[in-house]
Amino acid sequence: MLFLTLFVASGPALISCKKSPSTDDTSVVGAHPNDADRPLPYTNADWMAGIDDSRYISELSIPGTHDCGADLHTSEQGAAWANVIAQDFRLSNQMLLGVRWFDVRLSDDAGTMTVYHWNYYLHKNFTDLITQAIGFLNAHPTETVVFMIKQEHSTRGDDAFANGIWCGYLYPYLSHFWLENHIPQLGEVRGKIVIMRQFEGTHGYPMGSPLIWQENSTGNMYMSDNNFYFYVQDHYSLGTVEISTKISEIESCIEKAHAEPYPYRCLYINFTSAERQGSQTLEHISSEITPAIDTYLQSKNYQNVGVIMVNFAGGSDDDEVHTGFVQTILNLNNFSNTLQIGTQCWMNHNLRVTTYRNGDAIPQVQDAAKWDTLTTGAWCYYNNDSTHEVFDGKLYNWYAVHDKRGLAPQGWHVARTGEWDTLISYAGGSTVAAGKLKDAGTLHWMSPNTGGMNDYLFTATPAGARWGSTFGSNGITALFWTSTDSGTNDASCIWMNFDNPAVQIQTYPRINGFSVRCVKNN
User: Fold this and answer.
1) N or C, which end of the chain is more exposed by having fewer CB within 10 Å?
2) How far apart (Å, rounded) are the C-alpha atoms in residues 416 and 434?
3) In 334-388, which residue ranges form alpha helices assigned H by DSSP?
4) E strands within 20-135?
5) Can you tell me the distance from the alpha carbon of 296 to that of 293, in angstroms, rounded to the nearest whole number?
6) If you ran DSSP here, which 8-state letter would residue 417 be given?
């Protein structure tokens, strides 16, 4: 495999040798590769920009494409038969439509990872897909794309296959990939290609999360090797069941995803694609399944239906397949920063503002001696490190909370002690409420993060504090100022800890820097 690096204004582009076409048959189906895709029916190039960094990708409704490389322009001669074609649009246009999860089928051809559907070579290599994804993400850095890689039409062992992926495609361009083994939050992966894999071996390399499931599955829950679950519906064979049964299976998976109590811990992957041997093309089958599921989703208007894998994203050239399915899936997402818990509407992240409500700047104070003598509002990052903002927000002294110009944005206010009491009561009382409000797992919290289940997606993180002139407790404690004035030199705050499911209301000197959560005005 030959790789060259071409540096252009948008970043490194990948160039590779290509396998030669395997057929000169001019009677086959498809379009010339240099033909332009038809105009896109809509674009959603930056839809993730409207979703908070703290959201896990498993909490979103994400359109995906089955056999993303099997597009209408798949080769110089087209596809050998119509059942090879699964998409009309090239990958670059699939991303512009709003698709973010891609089913990537690769064959290890002596170290060159070629793109296949079944036993048909699609006249593109993995490099072609990577190049298009990098170009898209350079232009749209708020987004992330997922490549779910499967070995297709080759029999290399998993370790050998992984070695080829790592050495030839991932390692040379590591800055473009996210390869960790847990469900990421958006803030971790914006601008990155997330790798998921449908193979076991990794040859010892970091290569994303393994998603291995039973072939032709009607729907099963699986456990990953890193303490998260995934549910897959991939019943693709219509040889023994009617399309109505397949549609019911898709709807059942949607219901399960919607009802999932811990979406930050469980991925749902739902294939609407199906095939039947004989005269029915993938396009014809999609023309029956897609509108039924589109209508179903619109009638339910659920949020968080998981990843829905589709054929003919954006419809088909001949209008046989419904155009608006990707848009329908995207519209299910919550693009606001609100979080309804009981009768209250909370902000779904810690406050990050740098101005008061009237537009006046809130000073950022890094110097320890200066911070320690303040009697006016100020903010800082934990440890004066801006990387903490993505998940922890900013730390404010209580003088900023109490400033008459208003710390909270228009329509919001910093939560009062009584409003925290209401939330704590709704979450089961002070002895267990922290467990239901804390972000789950130990990605942010120190082990054991006792009780941390994040039942209401409040996602309290252990941002720690500025204890006057020093920083501490990051990873250990979440502390939130309340706006209730104690009438002393101290002020009330909410305390949650890594080793305790309880919430406590405590008082600390106003000079400390704590997190802030806001409640929407009635």
Assistant:
1) C
2) 17
3) 368-371
4) 61-65, 101-109, 112-117, 120-125
5) 5
6) H
3-state DSSP call for residue 103? strand
Superfamily of domain 52-335: Phosphatidylinositol (PI) phosphodiesterase (3.20.20.190)
Centroid of chain to Cα 513: 31
Are residues 461 and 392 in contact, defined by beta-carbon separation less than 8 angstroms? Answer: yes
Interatomic CA distance for residues 448 and 440, integer angstroms: 10
User: Residue 255 and residue 213: Cα distance in Å, rounded?
Assistant: 20
Over the stretch 391-418, which tens digit does the pLDDT of each residue have?
899 999 999 999 999 999 999 999 999 9
Instruction: Identify the pLDDT of residue 384.
Output: 97
Query: What is the distance in angstroms between the CA of the first residue and the CA of the last residue of the chain?
Result: 62
**Nearest CA among 455, 236, 245 for reference residue 339:** 455
What is the DSSP code (8-state) at residue 72? T
Q: What pLDDT is recorded for position 81?
A: 66
* Biggest CA-to-CA distance, the chain: 86
Q: Which range among 43-47, 77-81, 304-308, 359-363 shows the weakest confidence by mean pLDDT?
A: 77-81
Instruction: Name the residue ranges covered by the structural domains of the chain.
Output: 52-335, 340-520
Residue-wise pLDDT for 342-356, tens only, equals 999 999 999 999 999
Are 153 and 146 a contacting pair, CB within 8 Å?
A: no
The answer to whether residues 516 and 401 touch, using CB atoms and an 8 Å cutoff, is yes
What would the two tokens of residue 278 be? 């004989």
| Helix (H) / strand (E) containing 127 | helix 126-139
Q: What is the pTM of this model?
A: 0.83
- For the stretch 260-274, pLDDT in tens is 988 888 999 999 999
Is 193:141 a contact under the CB 8 Å cutoff?
Answer: no
Q: CB of 412 within 8 A of CB of 397?
A: no
Q: Which amino acid is at 32?
A: H
Cα gap 435→427, rounded to integer Å: 9
Cβ–Cβ < 8 Å for 5, 12: yes
Contact partners, residue 365, CB within 8 Å, separation at least 6? 371, 374, 378, 379, 380
Q: What is d(CA 254, CA 309) in angstroms, rounded to the nearest whole number?
A: 12
CA 125/CA 115 separation, integer angstroms: 5
